[in-house]
Design goal:
The structure is a homodimer. In chain A, α4 crosses α8. With about 200 residues, the first copy, chain A, is α+β, with helices and mostly antiparallel strands. Chain A is globular and about 50 Å long. In chain A, β1, α1 and β2 form a beta-alpha-beta unit. The model of chain A has no long low-confidence stretch (mean pLDDT about 95). Chain A has a 4-stranded mixed beta sheet with strand order 2-1-3-4, sandwiched between helices. The first copy, chain A, contains 9 helices and 4 strands, in the order βαβαααααααββα. The interface between A and B is medium-sized, with 31 and 31 residues.
Chain lengths: ~200, ~200
């Protein structure tokens, strides 16, 4: 079995969302699994010395246009949320709790979180919305209530962010396949060519 | 005749170089002319609040890998120059002086400057190297000597940079076609699809 594709993203990242809609088909074409890693870009941007794309002069306006254009290009429903970017700690914590019980369910949950935010404009910073999405994904939400408030899952998310930085991750989406890093949904064709050819 | 593609770039931009190697074929497939605009990213980065890609923690290492990988992907010869980034004022000034006499020659000169720097490792900050490349492009270099030192061409480059910012340009390569902006050599497939379909 070839190595899985590692996939890092922030639930507040439009390009991360589009990548989440596309990566399964890429992986399936090449018999690869995908390991999903929601992270928090805030602390990473501080280390890299950058800021959220949409906040930058000139670049921000272009980015907003490009988010929507790229989504339409890939037939992915998209509407820039009224509150953007948004806090994604709760969603990331819920993801890892669900993943500990069932990685496939966590994967489904992640797609629901992204769509809730970027297609339906729901407030994914709200723990009640996150719980509703967990329920839609079939998770045992009663079992999530206490752990979601606990220190263990906060530490878990921090560790995931630290591990991401150690792996070189500085943005979303970020992929590593067979040791090769790819940043951005626009690198998916290259990622696929890399898998197909073994690199160049 | 459909509107030309506007193409902004800094001679010190690896992705600008790769785009310069690819854009003519894209334009030819769709009967478009290309208007080349060398600019200086330094003053623009100050306004946008960003820094040269290769200087950023994490992102810089990735970028260097991606420059070379993207060049190989497109069969463009590339070697990251020992001095990178580099001052490109002289090359930009020479470009506009040559363009005033003959735009097609300036276009050829621009490709020579890019290749000299990114394929052959020549010092394009050096006025003698720039003059040699102008001669290779068939320009009357004797007629360039004095204007290249004059204030008029400095003001011309400043105006080009100001106009670029007014048009929304914040990076290299940057294209506008039929009013639609595209940033990055990785947006060329989308730019071409935009021309083909009239947008989506």
């Amino acid at each position: 079995m070839p190595a899985p594709i590692a996939f890092w993203f922030d639930f507040s990242s439009p390009y991360g969302y589009i990548a989440a809609e596309l990566i399964d088909a890429v992986a399936a074409r090449h018999d690869r699994a995908v390991n999903w890693h929601p992270i928090l870009l805030g602390p990473i941007f501080k280390q890299v010395g950058t800021a959220p794309l949409a906040d930058l002069p000139l670049k921000g306006d272009y980015a907003k246009r490009d988010f929507a254009r790229t989504a339409r290009y890939h037939d992915v429903p998209f509407r820039l949320p009224a509150v953007f970017p948004i806090a994604t700690q709760v969603a990331a914590r819920a993801f890892y709790l669900i993943a500990d019980a069932d990685p496939a369910r966590a994967h489904d949950f992640a797609k629901r979180v992204f769509r809730a935010y970027f297609a339906d404009g729901r407030d994914i910073a709200d723990a009640e919305v996150v719980m509703a999405l967990a329920a839609e994904a079939g998770a045992d939400t009663q079992a999530l209530v206490d752990p979601l408030k606990g220190d263990a899952v906060k530490a878990r998310v921090r560790t995931e962010v630290e591990n991401a930085v150690k792996a070189g991750v500085f943005g979303s989406p970020y992929f590593i396949v067979d040791g090769e890093p790819f940043w951005g949904v626009d690198r998916l064709p290259m990622l696929e060519e890399w898998i197909r050819t073994g690199g160049w």
